[in-house]
From TrEMBL:
Keywords, sorted A to Z: Disulfide bond, Endoplasmic reticulum, Membrane, Mitochondrion, Transmembrane, Transmembrane helix
GO cellular component: endoplasmic reticulum membrane; mitochondrial membrane
Protein name: Caspase recruitment domain-containing protein 19
Gene designation per UniProt: Card19
Coiled coil spans: none
Amino acid sequence: QSYCHRLQHDMYFLTSTSRLNEQVVDKIVLQLNRVYPQILTNEEAEKFRNPKASLHTRLSDLLKHLQKKGDRHCQEFYRALQINDEQLFNDLPSRKILKTSDPTEIDTDKEQYMLNDRGPVFFLACFSVAAGLALCWYCWNSETQVTGRARRVLGFSPIIIGRHVRNICLLYLEDILRN
C-alpha cells in the first residue's frame, strides 16, 4: 500500500479530537521544511505554521498538500511523525493493519474475544455440573460419615440452592441413613 493511500486512510484519525497538538505539528512542518530532501518550501511551511488559522485546518491542508505532491512526500511525513510522536505513530490505523497483515501473527484482541465468547451462563452451568458431581461422589463414598455433615450444610443453604432442591437432597440423605 502506498504512503499516499495510507495517509488518506489515517487522515480522519490524525485530524479528529486534537490528537496532534500545535507543537508537534510545528515540529513536523519544520522538519519537512529543513530536512533533505526538502518537502515543503519556506512559503508552504509558513502557511502551515500560521497561528491565525485553526490547527485542524492547517493539519488538514498539510495532509492534502502532501497527498497531491506524491508518495515520497507522504513517506517523509510519516518519518517526521514517528520522530516527533512515536506513540501516535504506533496508534495509526494503517500501522495496525500493517502489524496484523502477517498471516503467522495472532491478533490478540480477536483471540481474547474468541476465548470469552461463551459467557457467564456457560461457566455457571459447567461449574454447577462439576459441583453436583463432586457432591454426589462425596456423598456416595462409603468410607466417610458424610450424612451428618452434609445434612448440616444443606440445612443452612436455602440461599445457595433452591428450597425444592434442598428438600430433595435432605430426603435423599434420610433415605441413605435408613438403609
